[in-house]
Design a protein that fits this description.
The chain is an alpha+beta fold and 116 residues long. The chain has one domain: HIT-like (HIT family, subunit A). The chain is 24% helix and 22% strand. It contains three helices and five strands. The chain has a five-stranded antiparallel β-sheet with strand order 1-2-3-5-4. Bound molecules: adenosine monophosphate. Adenosine monophosphate (AMP) binds next to loops. The site of adenosine monophosphate has 12 residues, from loops.
Length: 116
Amino acid sequence: MPTETIFSKIIRKEIPASIVYQDELVTAFRDIHPQAPTHVLIVPNKLIPTVSDVTAEDEAAIGRMFTAARKIAEQEGIAASGYRLIVNCKQHGGQEVYHLHMHLLGGKQLGRMLPQ
Ligand code: AMP
């Protein structure tokens, strides 16, 4: 069994978080250290540690992460100006929390995707 992270507690509402969207497959909440005016994390309710652990069974939840991203971008008023979706995977990807999540960032002109 994969080890739970703080995100499971947020999904179950056992600890406080600024939840902006939740349904039966995914939960989205504001990042505690925002790196843009809008910085929301979209996570599957099921504990999937990394992209490397995704299976065909997870395709509905992974697809829902994208439709949730579109809805949240509209709610946040950044759909027209645009935004960036990022998924970090393991050490070289810079993943800190081992509960799969998508960063939704926007609300300003973002810089280069990778430092030169
Ligand atoms: P990553 O480096 O892709 O694993 O990103 C993990 C993100 O989770 C970071 O941007 C953190 O700021 C964020 N984070 C960690 N703990 C919390 C929390 N309790 N509530 C909201 N965001 C968090």
